[in-house]
Amino acid sequence: MIYGGGSIGLMGIIADTIMEKGGRVTGVIPQFLYQKEVGHDDISNLIIVNTMHERKHQMAAMSNGFIAMPGGIGTLEELFEIFTWSQLQLVRHPLGLLNVNGYYDPLLNMLQHMYEEGFLNERTMSLLTHDADPEALLDKMAKQKLKESNKGIEKI
User: Fold this and answer.
1) CA-CA distance, 109 to 156, in Å (whole number)?
2) Rounded CA separation 145/118 (Å)
3) What is the pTM of this model?
4) For the chain, what is the mean pLDDT?
Protein backbone atom coordinates (compact mmCIF):
# COMPACT_ATOMS: atom_id res chain seq x y z
CA MET A 1 0.00 0.00 0.00
CA ILE A 2 1.12 3.51 -0.77
CA TYR A 3 -0.58 6.21 1.26
CA GLY A 4 -0.10 9.59 2.92
CA GLY A 5 2.19 8.31 5.69
CA GLY A 6 0.08 9.15 8.73
CA SER A 7 -0.11 7.15 11.94
CA ILE A 8 -3.62 8.30 12.88
CA GLY A 9 -7.14 7.80 11.58
CA LEU A 10 -8.49 5.14 9.27
CA MET A 11 -5.39 5.02 7.08
CA GLY A 12 -3.12 4.66 10.13
CA ILE A 13 -5.20 1.67 11.24
CA ILE A 14 -5.04 0.13 7.76
CA ALA A 15 -1.26 0.65 7.61
CA ASP A 16 -0.87 -1.04 11.01
CA THR A 17 -3.05 -3.97 9.92
CA ILE A 18 -1.12 -4.49 6.69
CA MET A 19 2.17 -4.41 8.59
CA GLU A 20 0.86 -6.89 11.20
CA LYS A 21 -0.08 -9.28 8.39
CA GLY A 22 3.39 -9.07 6.83
CA GLY A 23 2.55 -6.67 4.02
CA ARG A 24 4.54 -3.72 2.74
CA VAL A 25 3.47 -0.14 3.35
CA THR A 26 5.02 3.01 1.92
CA GLY A 27 4.00 6.37 3.27
CA VAL A 28 4.69 9.78 1.74
CA ILE A 29 4.32 12.69 4.15
CA PRO A 30 5.30 16.36 4.07
CA GLN A 31 7.81 17.47 6.71
CA PHE A 32 5.33 19.79 8.45
CA LEU A 33 2.88 16.92 9.05
CA TYR A 34 5.66 14.62 10.19
CA GLN A 35 6.71 17.24 12.72
CA LYS A 36 3.15 17.35 14.10
CA GLU A 37 3.85 13.75 15.18
CA VAL A 38 1.42 12.18 12.75
CA GLY A 39 4.13 10.50 10.65
CA HIS A 40 4.09 6.69 10.82
CA ASP A 41 7.60 5.48 11.66
CA ASP A 42 6.58 1.81 11.97
CA ILE A 43 5.95 1.08 8.29
CA SER A 44 8.16 -0.44 5.58
CA ASN A 45 9.18 2.87 4.05
CA LEU A 46 8.41 6.47 5.02
CA ILE A 47 9.30 9.15 2.50
CA ILE A 48 9.39 12.71 3.81
CA VAL A 49 8.82 15.44 1.21
CA ASN A 50 8.58 19.23 1.31
CA THR A 51 5.03 19.97 0.12
CA MET A 52 1.56 18.47 -0.20
CA HIS A 53 1.83 18.69 -3.99
CA GLU A 54 5.13 16.80 -3.94
CA ARG A 55 3.45 14.18 -1.73
CA LYS A 56 0.57 13.64 -4.17
CA HIS A 57 2.90 13.58 -7.16
CA GLN A 58 5.17 11.00 -5.52
CA MET A 59 2.23 8.81 -4.46
CA ALA A 60 0.72 8.94 -7.95
CA ALA A 61 4.03 8.09 -9.60
CA MET A 62 4.47 4.97 -7.41
CA SER A 63 0.87 3.70 -7.59
CA ASN A 64 -0.87 1.13 -9.79
CA GLY A 65 -4.37 2.23 -8.80
CA PHE A 66 -6.15 4.57 -6.44
CA ILE A 67 -8.92 3.99 -3.88
CA ALA A 68 -10.65 6.71 -1.88
CA MET A 69 -12.27 5.54 1.32
CA PRO A 70 -14.68 7.52 3.50
CA GLY A 71 -12.88 10.60 4.70
CA GLY A 72 -12.90 14.36 4.97
CA ILE A 73 -12.02 17.31 2.81
CA GLY A 74 -8.43 16.14 2.29
CA THR A 75 -9.71 12.84 0.91
CA LEU A 76 -12.02 14.67 -1.48
CA GLU A 77 -9.21 16.98 -2.59
CA GLU A 78 -6.93 14.03 -3.34
CA LEU A 79 -9.73 12.10 -5.04
CA PHE A 80 -10.63 14.96 -7.35
CA GLU A 81 -7.01 15.75 -8.17
CA ILE A 82 -6.41 12.15 -9.27
CA PHE A 83 -9.80 12.10 -11.03
CA THR A 84 -8.76 15.24 -12.95
CA TRP A 85 -5.34 13.81 -13.77
CA SER A 86 -7.11 10.68 -15.06
CA GLN A 87 -9.46 12.78 -17.17
CA LEU A 88 -6.42 14.54 -18.67
CA GLN A 89 -4.75 11.13 -19.19
CA LEU A 90 -1.80 12.12 -17.03
CA VAL A 91 -2.55 9.14 -14.77
CA ARG A 92 -3.71 5.92 -16.41
CA HIS A 93 -4.56 3.54 -13.60
CA PRO A 94 -7.93 2.52 -12.12
CA LEU A 95 -9.63 4.91 -9.72
CA GLY A 96 -12.03 3.48 -7.15
CA LEU A 97 -14.38 4.85 -4.53
CA LEU A 98 -15.16 2.60 -1.56
CA ASN A 99 -18.74 3.63 -0.82
CA VAL A 100 -19.16 2.16 2.68
CA ASN A 101 -22.76 2.39 3.96
CA GLY A 102 -23.64 4.81 1.15
CA TYR A 103 -21.13 7.38 2.44
CA TYR A 104 -20.42 8.67 -1.07
CA ASP A 105 -24.00 8.47 -2.41
CA PRO A 106 -24.43 12.27 -2.33
CA LEU A 107 -21.14 12.69 -4.22
CA LEU A 108 -22.12 10.08 -6.80
CA ASN A 109 -25.47 11.84 -7.22
CA MET A 110 -23.64 15.14 -7.79
CA LEU A 111 -21.40 13.56 -10.41
CA GLN A 112 -24.50 12.16 -12.13
CA HIS A 113 -26.05 15.65 -12.01
CA MET A 114 -22.89 17.12 -13.56
CA TYR A 115 -23.11 14.50 -16.33
CA GLU A 116 -26.79 15.24 -16.97
CA GLU A 117 -26.04 18.97 -17.14
CA GLY A 118 -23.27 18.37 -19.69
CA PHE A 119 -20.27 19.13 -17.48
CA LEU A 120 -18.94 15.56 -17.49
CA ASN A 121 -18.91 13.23 -20.46
CA GLU A 122 -19.40 9.47 -20.49
CA ARG A 123 -15.67 8.75 -20.73
CA THR A 124 -14.95 10.85 -17.65
CA MET A 125 -17.80 9.22 -15.71
CA SER A 126 -16.37 5.80 -16.56
CA LEU A 127 -13.02 6.65 -14.94
CA LEU A 128 -14.43 6.36 -11.40
CA THR A 129 -15.42 2.88 -10.26
CA HIS A 130 -17.36 2.49 -7.03
CA ASP A 131 -18.72 -0.22 -4.78
CA ALA A 132 -19.60 -0.71 -1.13
CA ASP A 133 -17.71 -4.00 -0.89
CA PRO A 134 -13.89 -3.81 -0.92
CA GLU A 135 -13.42 -7.11 -2.78
CA ALA A 136 -16.05 -6.20 -5.38
CA LEU A 137 -14.39 -2.82 -5.85
CA LEU A 138 -10.99 -4.44 -6.40
CA ASP A 139 -12.54 -6.88 -8.90
CA LYS A 140 -14.15 -4.00 -10.82
CA MET A 141 -10.90 -2.08 -10.84
CA ALA A 142 -8.98 -5.14 -12.08
CA LYS A 143 -11.41 -5.46 -14.97
CA GLN A 144 -10.91 -1.87 -16.03
CA LYS A 145 -8.69 -1.78 -19.03
CA LEU A 146 -5.30 -0.68 -17.77
CA LYS A 147 -3.71 1.58 -20.31
CA GLU A 148 -0.08 2.54 -20.52
CA SER A 149 1.84 3.40 -17.40
CA ASN A 150 1.70 6.85 -15.88
CA LYS A 151 3.70 8.45 -18.70
CA GLY A 152 2.06 11.82 -18.22
CA ILE A 153 2.91 12.09 -14.54
CA GLU A 154 6.11 14.01 -15.34
CA LYS A 155 3.99 16.88 -16.72
CA ILE A 156 2.24 17.43 -13.40
Assistant:
1) 29
2) 25
3) 0.85
4) 91
